[in-house]
Amino acid sequence: MPTAMPPEGATTLDALRRAAATCTGCDLYKRATQTVFGEGNSRASIMLIGEQPGHEEDLAGRPFVGPAGRLLDKALAQAGLDSRQVYVTNIVKHFKWKSQEGGKRRIHEKPGRSEVEACRPWFDKELWLVQPEVLVCLGATAAAAILGPAVRVGTARGRALPSPQGIRTFVTVHPSAILRIPDDAERTAAMRRFVADLRRAIRAARRPPRATRARRSPATPRRAAR
Q: Of the candidates 151, 123, 127, which has an alpha carbon nearest to the alpha carbon of residue 139?
């Protein structure tokens, strides 16, 4: 039966993924090919969080398999981390798009706040199951969803910030932003900075946490982000 909330019995990522496939919590499911759930190492110390699946991800049913994902894999390799050692997901699990005028191409459209909030219970439980030591927010939408609407990539970048769940959180650009830079030299410089951001997250994940985090239920009310 279609659902908008994760069932209490979904206590593994596989079970949660199966349940999310029938989510109708917002209207995005009506035009998307399928739900695109997170994937990767279920015990990863680092969770990478994007905005939403894109065109290729929507068709494949897997996150970060398009051009942005390939750039992310390259950046992770340059930072010294195998992409199979992380968990990757998106705040929104369905592809939001609009038609290109006069063409058949599907154009990415930024999800609204209500769509982010509709997906939040799924993400919260996903986070609870993986229990990463470090979060990396890829882009403004993910950063705002995790740290609050006042956060800005430009000012938050390069610092370890506490998430409402008590997890060390880093903010950086979405890899698609690097792909959109037309100048080769500027794109190379942006890639170097992106790799540096990932290295900071990797170093943070290798350090013991300051305090043992309690395994809170995903239904526990979230404290306001500061």
A: 151
pLDDT (tens digit, 9 = 90+) per residue, 90-149? 999 999 999 877 667 888 999 999 999 999 999 999 999 999 999 999 999 999 999 999
Cα separation, 162 vs 135, whole angstroms: 10
Residue-averaged pLDDT of the chain: 90
Q: Which residues contact 30 (CB under 8 A, 6 or more apart)?
A: none
Residues near 139 by beta carbon (within 8 Å), at least 6 away in sequence: 50, 51, 153, 173, 174, 176, 177
Strands 168-172 and 97-99: unpaired
> What are 20's two structure tokens?
């999310």
Q: Do residues 115 and 88 lie in contact, with contact meaning Cβ atoms separated by under 8 Å?
A: no
Other Cβ atoms less than 10 A from the Cβ of 138: the count is 28
pLDDT, position 218: 56
Question: What angle separates helix 113-130 from helix 140-147, to the nearest 10 degrees?
Answer: 70
Paired with 107 in beta bridges are 98
Half-sphere exposure of 102 (CA within 13 A, CB side): 0
Q: Which residues on neighbouring strands pair with residue 136, listed in sequence order?
A: 48, 170
> DSSP secondary-structure letter at 222?
P
Quick one: tokens of 176? Answer: 């698609």
* Cα(32)–Cα(51) distance, integer angstroms: 15
Which residues contact residue 214 at a Cβ distance below 8 angstroms, ignoring those fewer than 6 apart?
none
Which pTM value belongs to this model?
0.89
Q: Rounded to the nearest 5 degrees, what angle is found at the Cα of 20, between the Cα atoms of 198 and 85?
A: 25
List, in order of start, the domains of the chain with CATH numbers.
13-206 (3.40.470.10)
